UniProtKB/TrEMBL annotation:
SUPFAM superfamilies: FAD/NAD(P)-binding domain, Succinate dehydrogenase/fumarate reductase flavoprotein, catalytic domain. Residues 67-488 form the FAD-dependent oxidoreductase 2 FAD-binding domain. It holds the Pfam family FAD_binding_2. NCBIfam families: flavo_cyto_c, PRK06481.1. Residues 1-23 form the signal peptide. It comes from Enterococcus aquimarinus. Its cofactor is FAD. Coiled coil: none annotated. This is Fumarate reductase. Keywords: FAD, Flavoprotein, Oxidoreductase, Signal.
Length: 508
């Protein structure tokens, strides 16, 4: 298929700054450790990636009919398109943003998978059962267990499938909530999102799968009780596209403040780390067809987000030993508690914000700090006392807090808050840093209900014929708390499955 370049630069893209997420294979990792992702968190900024240099399909090539319509070109959508194409179908992807990638582009920590060939090569002992148990514990026992079994049982084959397409995630590390090294990243330990999205688009292009950007799907059509295509707006015109099946992969609703507030009034006014296009469109369109939703109030809040930019400060900074202090210059929480608990402790402060405090040695270990500094997020001073003055904290109190903390590190005991991890390094080497943070919305765990075949379900458990969904648009898999690395696993495993199942349906 002939393609022509869609000028994405007209939408104000800025150049990508890709820093390594975590260097050493042995290092612990966490989500959003790449500065390239955090750059994109402002609602006003556009998605930034080398994905912008790909050629998208020219609108003049739009046809009226395809076998399968895929709504949204994030990880789940592109995985669905590739597996549908493998099954002999003629799929199309419609993407409302000027470039493909969605939130997937922002993901940096990696993709969880168990019993993989790469784990075996590195001598890491893992099992699908352990992966299941870790995820269920993380989700506070509320995960949809059928979906979860499918996720873990098919995670290794998703890694192999990606590898077969030249997307090799063979650098494995720890992530929060995992008992063993399970989070898979590109060989150099760099950000998973840009690597994954670039690899997927490369395959989409090689397979001549039409991918239209600036193409918003506004409605899913139904004829005689079966899904029959979609309405799209492309180049300012509304068009009806017919298809045998529709796969909805529109991502979450982390940037739709109205939806967030309606399900979680307590999150009113929270900044979001998610892509501006995460507006819950798919959920709304599916609800119009009678599709059921689940866990809509389960919204993951991340405790270290710069409020004016929405920039996520990676858990790596706390993982490397940073502490959190309140405006009085005192610690108030075990900084390595789960995201929900640390966020709650910040919200309970009268000022509802806190400062991450760390030293120059930590800044050297956590490469992301360079980026935070370049973006003006850090406050820096040669001594603790000078730092305290800059952030309007009593210098003697902050000094005493640091002294106590450094003694805790020495003794390997935190009598006040019981912190037991990330106590390998003290904070004694100037210059010293502060970053002002507060909680921000990070991931929406609720969404439409699906079964293991990714068919969309109604309240009574019946399916909507021809309608499939995968990725962050769906709910139930993560329960009340998603563990880091499981969203990328989710989009790859279920995105792939959606393509297979939609193809089976369309073939009948
Ligand atoms: C900063 C950050 C870091 C993260 N790091 C990690 C990590 O390391 N590991 C991990 O597992 N998870 C991580 N996550 C979560 C993970 O990235 C997402 O949950 C996942 O990528 C969602 O993928 P998706 O394909 O479902 O949706 P998306 O990737 O968001 O794609 C959805 C696409 O649909 C498009 N769309 C929406 N509505 C329409 C419409 N009406 N018409 C056409 N197109 C539409 C959107 O523009 C978008 O491109 C992170 C999230 C954030 C915000």
């Amino acid at each position: 298929m002939k393609k022509s370049f869609v000028k994405t630069l007209a939408f104000g893209l800025v150049s990508t700054l890709i820093l390594s997420a975590c260097g050493a294979e042995t290092s612990s990792t966490s989500e959003a450790s790449s500065s390239s992702q955090t750059k994109e968190t402002q609602a006003s900024s556009e998605v930034v990636s080398s994905a912008s240099v790909y050629e998208y399909t020219n609108p003049t090539e739009l046809q009226e009919t395809y076998d399968i319509v895929i709504v949204g070109a994030g990880g789940a959508g592109m995985a669905a398109a590739l597996s549908a194409k493998d099954a002999g179908m003629n799929p199309v992807i419609f993407e409302k943003a000027p470039v493909a990638g969605g939130n997937t582009m922002k993901s940096s920590g990696g993709m969880n998978a168990s019993e993989t060939k790469f784990q075996e090569e590195l001598g890491i002992e893992d099992s699908n059962e352990l992966f299941f148990e870790d995820t269920l514990t993380g989700g506070k026992g509320t995960n949809n267990q059928e979906l979860l079994h499918y996720l873990v049982d098919n995670s290794a084959s998703a890694i192999d499938w990606l590898d077969s397409m030249g997307i090799t995630l063979n650098n494995i590390s720890y992530s929060g909530g995992a008992s063993v090294k399970r989070i898979h990243r590109p060989a150099d330990g760099s950000s998973v999102g840009t690597y994954l999205v670039d690899g997927l688009i490369r395959n989409i292009t090689e397979q001549s799968i039409p991918l239209f950007v600036n193409s918003e799907v506004t409605k899913i059509n139904e004829t005689d009780g079966k899904v029959s295509g979609v309405e799209i707006i492309i180049e300012g015109e509304t068009k009806t596209i017919t298809s045998d099946a529709v796969v909805v992969t529109t991502g979450g609703y982390g940037s739709n403040h109205e939806m967030i507030e309606s399900f979680r009034p307590d999150l009113k006014g929270y900044v979001s780390t998610t892509a501006a296009s995460s507006t819950g469109d798919g959920i709304k369109m599916i609800e119009q067809l009678g599709g059921a939703t689940v866990d809509m109030d389960q919204i993951q809040v991340h405790p270290t987000v710069v409020q004016d930019s929405g920039m996520l400060i990676s858990e790596t900074v706390r993982g490397e030993g940073a502490i959190l202090v309140n405006q009085q210059g005192e610690r108030f929480v075990n900084e390595l508690e789960t995201r929900d608990n640390v966020s709650a402790a910040e919200t309970a402060l009268p000022e509802q914000y806190a400062y991450l405090i760390f030293d120059n040695e930590l800044a050297k270990r956590a490469k992301q700090v360079e980026y935070y500094e370049s973006e003006g997020a850090t406050i820096k001073a040669d001594t603790i006392e000078e730092l305290a003055q800059q952030i309007d904290i009593d210098p003697a109190t902050l000094k005493a807090t640091l002294d106590t903390w450094n003694n805790n590190v020495k003794e390997q005991k935190d009598p006040e808050f019981g912190r037991e991890t990330a106590m390998d390094y003290d904070l004694t080497t100037g210059p010293f840093y502060a970053i002002k943070i507060a909680p921000g919305i990070h991931h929406t765990m609720g969404g439409v209900q699906i079964n293991v075949d990714t068919q969309v379900l109604k309240e009574d458990g019946s399916v909507i014929p021809g309608l499939y969904a995968a990725g962050e648009v769906t709910g139930g898999i993560h329960g009340q708390n998603r563990i880091g690395g499981n969203a990328v696993a989710d989009i790859m495993v279920f995105g792939r499955q959606a393509g297979v199942q939609a193809a089976k349906y369309a073939n009948n």
